[in-house]
Amino acid sequence: MILKKREQDIIDDFNLFQDWSEKYEYIINLGKELSPLKKDLKCSANLIRGCQSNVWLVPKIKDGKIFFSADSDALITKGLVALLVKIFSGANLKDVALFDITVIKAVGLDKHLSMNRSNGLGKMIEQIKKISLNYLKE
Amino acid sequence: MTQISSKIRKDFPFFDTNKNRANIIYFDNAATTQKPRVVINAVSDFYSSYNSNVHRGGYLLANRATEMFELTRELIQKYINSKSKEEIIFTSGTTQSVNLVAHSFIKKFLKKGDTILVSKMEHHSNIVPWQLACKQYGLKIKELALKIDGTINLNFLKKIKNTSIKLIVFQHVSNVTGAENNIKEIINVCKKHNIYTFIDGAQAIAHKKIDVQSINCDFYCFSGHKCLGPTGTGILFGKKELLEIMPPYMGGGEMIDSVNLQNSSWNKLPYKFEAGTPNIAGFIGLGKAFLYLKKIGLHKINALEQELINTLYKELKKIENIVFYSSAQGSTICTFNIKGIHSYDLGALLNEQGVCVRTGHLCAQPATKLFKTNSFIRISLSFYNTQEEIFQFITCLNKSIKILLK
After folding, report:
1. What residues of B are in contact with residue A109 (Cβ under 8 Å)?
2. What 3-state class would DSSP assign to B40?
3. Which is it for strands B115-118 and B140-143: parallel, antiparallel or unpaired?
4. With an 8 Å Cβ cutoff, are A53 and B406 in contact?
5. Among B104, B115, B256, B354, whose CB has the most other CB atoms within 10 angstroms?
6. Which of A14-28, A54-68, B107-121, B365-379 is predicted least confidently?
7. Active-site residue numbers of A?
């Protein structure tokens, strides 16, 4: 399944890193690869509010597949949402809605960036699945 | 000074170099302080050798618990120079102290249409309880004018003509900038206008001399865990003549005199406000914290802290594009941002290097807006921090900035 494969690619990348700073540089660079979000899309409807940083996540559906674009005001948070976009964007709605993400734990990110409200990572994952589920029901 | 500092550090098991915490740099002392061994031992000793409930049992163990528990009240009464032990109410922390006054005092002393003055610099704990009470009792909140550094504008207070203003609530020291309000002068002005005064001393108690008689405030409160004591301990000082008229805040055991099914009468002060079994171990520990503070002495504490903060500013000023929200004088709090970098990113990378600092809105969203930002990085020092830690922190900070500006 494509989602599993994408997760594995990221895990393989992480296995190459020697220390924490390389992991962060990788995450930050993922964020920089995101295409910029138009200003009017950075609205409250697309906002996932973390305790400290904000994320905007915009879904688009085409041929039963879901695509995400995203942005954040903090670099690391932007990298984290980019990591999720990298995994989920372009996949089948049903796959996204049902997928249990394991990459965060597998690469040890949970130990670095607690899945807490400061970066809203947990909320981002929840939101991605919720959006997909809602479209499926339609 | 360095020698004094390393001797003091040995009093804190947290910094014991034999543990894996050796690399931690703890710079979040405004959130909570580390605890000296005497405090930890006192808590442990209570549970292991004389655990029993206070003010009830007529047996030896319970008497000892009560004695030790009440000793803390006496120590704190003397430390802040209040007139009597009856004015020292044990609470769970600053937040509960605010809530107690926001309900009990307001119920008796303010009436519908009255106004409370609150400043935008306050911690959420000194805003939200007043908002809730205002909704419940039909009162208004008005903004207290500030000077550019976030301290209270005395000229505004002097010109007050609005006679509906009955209470002013403000912080002694800001948790955002560390700036100190001139509380004595503010209270002087308020007394002339017959305005009651409530002071949040959470950020002052570990660093400033507090003399509630000389300040002449109506209420002053703080948390025990911010001045070396256990969490879940707090103090509310209130003037006896006010506390006596105020109705109980919570009902339950301890706070009663006699009870029948329809009516009860209340215990005397301070117990009227201390329903239920209190945090006995915590308050016994808090007593030791104050004894320890007294032993080191505020004079020495301030000297050590000023030396640390001077080094911190000297080193931080070398960093390009740094913007300060605090100043080096007389405060242990240093708040800043680095232009073009989100404080969350810096905090996350500092955390990776074992540096504990606070980032975000610091539980003071109105203050954050006042300084036209979304978040801050806050360093808050304590006398047990060291010069070496500051230099190590600067290295970590530079490394983080380098990663983020790549």
Report:
1. none
2. helix
3. parallel
4. no
5. B104
6. B365-379
7. 51
A119 pLDDT higher than 90: no
Given CB atoms, is A74 within the 8 Å cutoff of chain B? yes
Q: Is A53 on the interface with B (CB under 8 A)?
A: yes
Residues of B in contact with A118 (CB under 8 A): 344, 347, 360
- CA dist B120 and B145 (Å) reads 9
Residue B404's identity, in one-letter code, is L
Q: What's the confidence (pLDDT) of residue B287? A: 98
User: Shortest CB distance from A52 goes to which of B360, B404, B406?
Assistant: B360
The A residues from 93 to 112 touching B (CB cutoff 8 Å) are: 112
Which comes out higher in pLDDT, residue A108 or B74?
Answer: B74
Burial class (CB in 10 A: 0-12, 13-18, 19+), B320: exposed
What pLDDT band is residue A117 in, cutting at 50, 70 and 90?
low
Q: Cα-atom radius of gyration of chain B, to the nearest Å?
A: 22
Across B315-329, average pLDDT: 93
> Judging by DSSP bridges, how do beta strands B196-200 and B165-171 pair with one another?
parallel
Output the six-digit token pair for B386.
Answer: 């060291």
A133 touches chain B (CB under 8 A): no
Q: What is the ipTM of this complex?
A: 0.88
**Average pLDDT of the segment spanning A110-119:** 63
| Domain count along chain A | 1
Q: How confident is the model at residue B142 (pLDDT cuts 50, 70, 90)?
A: very high
Domain hosting A54: range is: 2-137
**Shortest distance, CA B404 to any CA of chain A (angstroms):** 8
Q: Which of B352, B361, B403 sits opposite A112 (nearest CB)?
A: B352
Q: In percent, how much of chain A has pLDDT > 90?
A: 66
The pLDDT of residue B123 is above 80? yes
Tokens of B58: 């007529």
* Residue ranges of domains in chain B, CATH in brackets: 2-30+297-405 (3.90.1150.10), 40-294 (3.40.640.10)
Distance of alpha carbon B220 from alpha carbon B237, whole angstroms: 5
**Helices marked H in B193-276:** 212-215, 240-245
Report the pLDDT value the prediction gives residue B265, as an integer from 0 to 100: 85
**Rounded distance, CA B52 to CA B305, Å?**
39
Residues of B in contact with A24 (CB under 8 A): 348-349, 352, 403
Cβ contact B347–A52 (<8 Å): yes
CB contact under 8 Å between A75 and B345, yes or no, is: yes
Instruction: Please state the pTM of the whole predicted model.
Output: 0.92
CATH number, domain of A63, equals 3.90.1010.10
Q: Which helix (H) or strand (E) holds A60?
A: strand A54-62
Interface mutation vs chain A, best among B345, B359, B404, most A CBs within 10 Å: B345
